[in-house]
Predict the 3D structure of the following.
Amino acid sequence: MTSVFGRFRPVRIGLALGFGCLVVGSAAAQPAGRIELSRMRPAGLLVDDYSYMTAPHNAYYFHHIDRLGFRLEPVKRAGPVFPLVRRERAVAATYPVGGRPVGLEEYFTRNRVTGFLVLHRDTVVLERYFHGANQKSRFVSQSVGKSVVAILIGTALEAGKFASVDDPVAKYWPALAESGYRDVTLKNTLQMATGVGYSENYRDSTSGAARIGAALVAGSPSFEAFVLSMKPTAVRPGTAFEYQSVNTQLLGQLLERVTGMSLARWAEQTLWRPLGAESDAFFYQARKQPDTCAFACFNATLRDYGRVGLMMLNGGELGGRRIISSEWVRQSTTPDADYLRPGPATAGGPPRTGYGYQWWIPPGNEGVFMAVGIFGQAIYVNPARGVVIVQTSAWPSPIGEGGFGAERAAMMNAVAAEIAPR
């Protein structure tokens, strides 16, 4: 996968921009044109003009997935809401583009941002919405949902549903012994080091990414059948990183098998309720798709994504409620092999971003880790500064060709440095 993290020199802090904590950035949402799933070409989900995933339609549908006619699986909230303190603060941050500083307002426009939330510990410093979104909008996670699934693997492991991350996945799903996952462990799957034959090329309508996307939209094949169809390659499991959405889909299927619950129900019981979420979330998939889409299909409000980030920032705890162990958080955000560690730029390319258990680890000395999804979705966690930033966007292309990923990293680092100087 082409990295969504790019190259940017250290940012400047400059032009002051004063914002209230909550500003709705545009009028009532209006679609650029109605999308009907039956008229879409399933394999063209990420490339065709007529798709809810592509511009200009994505600026509306990325926070209106529930209006497309998909089968929705609710993740219900319950109990007390974890409170977020609202406190207005002026935010000043710029990053360089073409030798000039770019501030937040231009950044929001350039990156087609639909929602932007900055938390300093439990305090809302900045909250903005655009393209008709608002505080009640539930935004599609894209692959930010992979990091949510990793949390759910942690809760299942600690509940004794898995014995060890070093167990072969076929121990929990014997049919995998006849697939490319025959010698793959749970840890290999979490670290995107399975060695199965699958391409995450978003611009190739014959790639693995296109085929799993077609299964999401059309409902066929089942995700279970798709996972079982994976073939081995010459790459031994546990020796090389290759980002593959099918691996997270496997994790979701395994969770349902070991817990005896739907993925949504397990998420509800072990994450969403103890988290103190303020709104229900949901997973989506085609009405004809019998399995839950685990790899990219979670939807939640900006603030509840922020609570997920705060829980990770706090070592697996929020509001006095332990959700996962601090050790699971550490393992999830600490690459433990050379091929997974972040590194400096080489041969004119961007710096190498590291990978843990479905979380990205950018280079740097502040312990930053991120959940990242195509078209600009992200949860940024900076433990050194106690900062969490959530961004939802509708980039014009999946991985932000033209430097959007680098801009996002640069801006988030600048905002964190501004609101929590060291």
About this structure: The chain has one domain: 16-30+65-97+116-419. The CA atoms of residues 192 and 242 lie 6 Å apart. The longest strand covers residues 113-120. The chain has a mean pLDDT of 92.
